[in-house]
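Recap quiz, item 2
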Amino acid sequence: MATVNRDNVEEVKTDDGSPKIKPRPIVRLGIFLIAHSPIFSVVFSAAGVLALLLLPLLAKNTYISENALMPGSARSMLSNQDVSDGSKLVNDIKNCRLNHEGQGVEVQKLIGKYMSDMGAEVSYQKFHPEGNQFHPLHFFSGPDSYTLLENVSCASYGVNVAGIIRAPRGDGKESIVLVTPYDFINGGDYESLSLGIVSSLFSLLSRVTWLSKDIIWLVADSRYGDYRPVAAWLNEYHSPSFKVSELLKCDELNTADNFRRAGTMAAALVLKVDGRSERFEDTLSIYAEASNGQMPNLDLINVVNYLAVHRQGFYVKVEKVVSLLSSSWLKIFGEIFEAVGKLAHTLNPDWNFGIPAADYLEGSATLASSLYSQALGIPTGPHGAFRDYQVDAITLKVSPRFPPDSKTRQHDFFLRGARLLEGTIRSVNNLLEKFHQSFFLYMLTSPSKFISVGVYMIAFALLVAPLPMVAASLYIDGCKALTNSTHNSAGNFKSWKWLDAAKQVFALHLLGFIVTLLPYFICQVPGQHSPRNRSIMWGTTSSSLLLITFVTIPGCSLFSSRPHGTNWAVLKSVTIAAAFIGLCLMSIINFATAEIGALLLVPTCLMAQPIKPALRSRRVKSLLGAFCSLVLVTIGFPVIFFAISKGLLGEGLGGLSLGGEFWIWLESLWAWKSATYLYIGMVHLPCWLLCLCILFHPS
Amino acid sequence: MAEEETYMFWIWAMASTIFRLFLIFFFPENINLSSRPELSTPLTSLRRLAEGYWLKQASLSPYAESMFHGSPLLLSILGPLTIQRIEGKSSHHLCSLVFVIADILSALLLRATGQKLQKAFRLNLKRLGLLTSLHDRGILPCGDIAALVYLWNPFTILSCVGSSTSPIENLAVIVSLYGAVTRRVPLAAFGLIMAIHLSLYSATLAIPLIFLLGYGLDAPPIKKFLQTRHAGVETTGSTSDVSKQDKLTQTTQLFSWRTVLHFVFWVLVWSSCVLVLCSLSLKQYGGLEEMFKRTNGFILRIEDLSPNIGVFWYFFAEVFDFSRNYLLIVFNLYILLTGIPPLAFRLKHRPCFLAFAYLAFSSILKSYPSVGDAALYLSLRALFVNELTDMEHSCFIFCGYIGFSLLSPVMHNIWIWRGTGNANFYFGNAMGYACFQFMFVEKSVNAMLNHDQALKKATAEMFKNSAITAIF
């Protein structure tokens, strides 16, 4: 942008007739780009979209970057005795639950007893499942902002059990965490298998001599969801509250003063067992996305993937969008890329970038899922809670291929699962410092293929590159037009003509900010309201605020017929500059949101033009342009885009229920402190409104 | 018209005060603005000041343990306020109220300064004979604009709400400028001494203040214009304009040594006052020597390498110990030699603008800059809206300022909290910000020189026309 803007002034100077100095090549390049900005903006945007489609092709194989990890170099020490310990625990839990009908904390006590028998320090923690409360400024604050609710009742609470094995070679300052979410009331048979696996491992780890980091096994009470108990435990671990909680008196289990800690966490693994595998092998799914598109270090995934594939023979997969696998247009792209790759290979045998169309389909379905869950900013599992404390964590979901009551298979399954975890822990145990060697910013296209930040940023950069170019060229045009129209009056303020437009842009961004905060106040409205009513409230307040803005701020009026308002070209230029800043900021906070946002916002901003002259001229080209910009602006409205994406996913929606759905979706966003919500309210919505202003500009 | 404008000014000023009070009392506590590196530096942090006060209460030196590095006088004034609580509110609220008052005072003084400058601008145009009715209407009330820019600048609001002492530092600078512009010499000297006492870099202001008191307010370089006129007179051989020339010669003032000596005298008086007070307050804790070592020495030696929006912390975190002293000398001399003399030579006819240029320059190359410094020079820049109407790249620089100031907390977050970035990200942002500041200063100075050039051209043209009419 620096060169581009520098150049436009350079150009103006030469227009004024001052002595012409031949500008430097880079300046001339800038002038050339700005002068032909329409062509280049089309070329760059198309290249950006193409680069996005090419990403699965550009994925590299993962490799273990940190040498100290050495996965799989030691022989597994897990014995059959350990595994039968695990099986015994599973059986005991089953019996205990049959006896107690899911009442009280008997199961927790049983697990605690097993842990202390193995030589671990046991602690219990009671927590309260917090409701989703929206506070507008929690987005910016750290994770330690959970407030203690004043009136906690004993009606709903959960109890976590944590056991800690002290490392014989460690100093108690570092730890590795194993988490098994388990619903103590109505957990299924499969769920208890995860307890069995970790119990087998725990039994081994209590004997080994090589541990240099303490091992924490957290059995999280998942009756109120997986995430909340883990987050509550982490909150207590990192920022203890010194208030005596009311929950302590709820039952006979005394949890006061026995919370145990074990130093900073090097890594965390969440293990879940669910449902039967559809494939012939046992399946291991890896979930890694934490809040706001943060990922754990790639090395952690690599270690697990390496051990699971090469040592324990699991079938490893990551989430993918299944509907894309059967999409025909993607298949066509894949075939084209395959053909091009083959052609290139025949031309030069060193060029091996082609991949089979089926691989391309798989890759792009996985990439789409990766993009989607990062853009949403909602963690895909309990591991998300760890990322708030900068701990690298992943969730491993194992699906065995046998029914839960098969004893012989279960033994083998425990052995392999525990060996996988043992290998991973042994690798992490070797680390002398935090994970830092490998990537934090990446997207997966398969468990063993990734796209690093340096590659996927190219697609985004190409997509937003037209924005500064078009802004500069429009700025020059608009200034010229303004100078012509106001030539006779005081020709002051040559370079401050953008101030009027900036005022308008600022006013609408302020409006966006207020609209973003409104749900907080709507949630404070007394009485029970359905999401639909709340969304209607929100909609009406926002639109009345918008009307007030249009009426009170003279530059903003949509439908005024004042001939000498702000010039639309300058307005569009400032709008585009604002969109550019917003998108660039968002690309650093959460790349995936920025990418999807740019796909929507860039064409809308570039195409927006007053439709009045187009209607007046009645030329096919300008009418087509006006139609395109109208369509783009319609799609760009967040609610409509939401409806369209819902429709694409096959869930028909219409009318007022749409508002309710939208509200629920937004509620989930702000419950997870997703920056996507802020992006929609403070970047997308104002820019969309500004595009609307330009569209109906009275020029 | 004018009445309506003042009316609007007061409304906006009141609104900004209310906005500040609202933010102080209703801003969520967990955001904790006072710990942002952009707002509070080791020198201006109120938290550190409170710590220093506690140390002093405990009969320890307030400078113990390298926590507090501010002025002992400020400690005596603000310190008691940091432990007073309004019921149910946290302790920084009283101090924040002091900062709000400081901000309002600064704005009012800026407004008065601006009105003086506006008058001078109009007078100069009249003297040169360039003032037409059209121009007269086009002169903006720069005082009001500067005051409002100061009050509504997000940087000012944030540093006021975010418990940093920079509003008081800014007030001292503005007091000194106001004193010099209204020729209240003791006030100017007081402001200068307080500003130097609070932050060392304000010492550069001595030069513009001396120019201001010696030569008078900002004016185009009339002497040079006269030379070109003389040349013009000789070639055309006309003497009809003699009377007008005489008037102009009379108006060009000579350097008035008396006022400057008066100023120097008051500077000495005030500095001895400040030193005596400081030594009294630090009597048991090592006295003045300790103070200079811990405040000015701390500034010059760049001891605290925690990240800030400046460009030095990163560099000095990387250098080898044996070259540290050498580089310290190089960097401090760089500020002293490259920034100050050239600007003083080039802009000595515009001392107020020179003050702006120095403040902006020092806020870029300071060892511990904060956005409060940027707030000060941006509002001083607004005093010259009339002169700097056609600054180049204004839109671009504006976007750059917004972009980089929004990017800074994001970069800090991904470095410190997420752990996905590193120090280079934040430092890169600081470099970009510094670049834009440099560009801003450079373009402003350029625009000012162009303005003088344009005035010169216009007078020469006018004189040529009048000479031609005189011949015929």
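Chain B touches chain A through 29 residues (CB under 8 Å).
Confidence is low (pLDDT under 50) at residues 233-242 of chain B.
End of item.
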